[in-house]
From TrEMBL:
Organism: Clostridium ragsdalei P11
Name of the protein: Transposon Tn10 TetD protein
SMART domains, sorted: AraC_E_bind, HTH_ARAC
GO MF term (any one): sequence-specific DNA binding
Pfam family membership, one: HTH_18
Gene3D superfamilies: Homeodomain-like, Regulatory factor, effector binding domain
PROSITE patterns cross-referenced by the UniProt entry: HTH_ARAC_FAMILY_1 (PS00041), HTH_ARAC_FAMILY_2 (PS01124)
Residue span(s) of domain HTH araC/xylS-type: 8-106
Keywords: DNA-binding, Transcription, Transcription regulation
Length: 277
């Protein structure tokens, strides 16, 4: 878990300004710290330098958009993250061992390797099958207690149990458990996935880690099954449904809203929510 509030604040700042030239000085100044001191605490908390973290997120976000924005020019996606065409191709290839054009051509519409089970392939349904299960809905803002993590999604179960135990006094009948995901594990190294685990609370809750998750328009898919199958469903929604739906994902990030969890069998009922415009 990332416990330093300034590091959490700096990550929010970085994600909000990925389409700009962000320097270490910019981030340190935003947190009112010297760049040398801030660089040390950032790396201690995340395991990465600020520079490496920013470049990685730019490459991962752009790779995700190459998958789902099939009609947008590669050069335009590179420009969105501050890269000229030749520079973007060079940096992307160095980071992913493949050029942006090859990456886009190779992105699967029927299946994708499962990084959590190396001997398995995640196979997708058709667009029509996903589309009949997706509803478009406006969600209200959520006031939540929030903890941020960088690591493997496989650790989510333990992290959730620890989180629920820590905040059990805040649980009510209408409490929602929510994950906010910032990483696509088909693009991001699985031990570097960034995500928040959250619990809805009253607006007057005095905990230091209370924040608001923006609502708005979402495409919502009700998932009812094994935790191990969530990756396949999410990849199908992005690679097949979103890429062909006519909708685009906006600057918000995806949410998972839990309705029930069977810890013994690791089965869940949850809404997979994609923010759209």
């Amino acid at each position: 878990m990332i416990s330093n509030e300034l590091v959490i604040k700096s990550i929010d700042y970085i994600m909000q300004h990925l389409d700009e030239e962000i320097s270490i000085e910019d981030v340190a100044n935003y947190c009112h710290l010297s760049k040398y001191y801030f660089s040390r605490i950032f790396k201690a908390e995340t395991g990465e330098s600020i520079y490496a973290f920013i470049k990685r997120l730019k490459m991962e976000q752009s790779a995700f958009r190459l998958k789902v924005e099939k009609d947008k020019l590669i050069t335009d996606i590179g420009y969105d993250y501050g890269y000229s065409p030749s520079n973007y191709s060079s940096v992307f290839k160095k980071h992913n061992n493949i050029s942006p054009a090859e990456f886009r051509k190779g992105k699967y519409t029927e299946c994708v390797p499962n990084p959590f089970c190396e001997d398995k392939v995640a196979r997708f349904q058709s667009f029509e099958e996903y589309d009949k299960q997706v509803i478009i809905q406006e969600l209200d803002d959520f006031v939540v207690i929030c903890e941020r993590h960088i690591g493997n999604y496989i650790e989510l179960g333990k992290n959730w149990l620890d989180f629920i135990e820590k905040y059990k006094d805040q649980l009510k009948e209408d409490t929602l458990l929510i994950e906010r995901s910032y990483a696509d594990p088909s693009v991001t190294r699985i031990d570097q996935c960034l995500y928040d685990i959250c619990m809805t609370v009253d607006k007057d809750c005095s905990f230091h880690n209370v924040t608001t998750i923006r609502g708005g328009k979402f495409a919502i898919y009700r998932f009812d099954g094994l935790v191990q199958d969530i990756f396949t469903t999410f990849q199908g929604l992005f690679n097949v449904w979103l890429a062909n739906s006519g909708y685009k994902m906006d600057e918000r990030y995806g949410l998972d809203i839990y309705h029930s969890i069977n810890w013994k069998n690791m089965c869940v009922v949850m809404d997979l929510c994609i923010p759209i415009i």
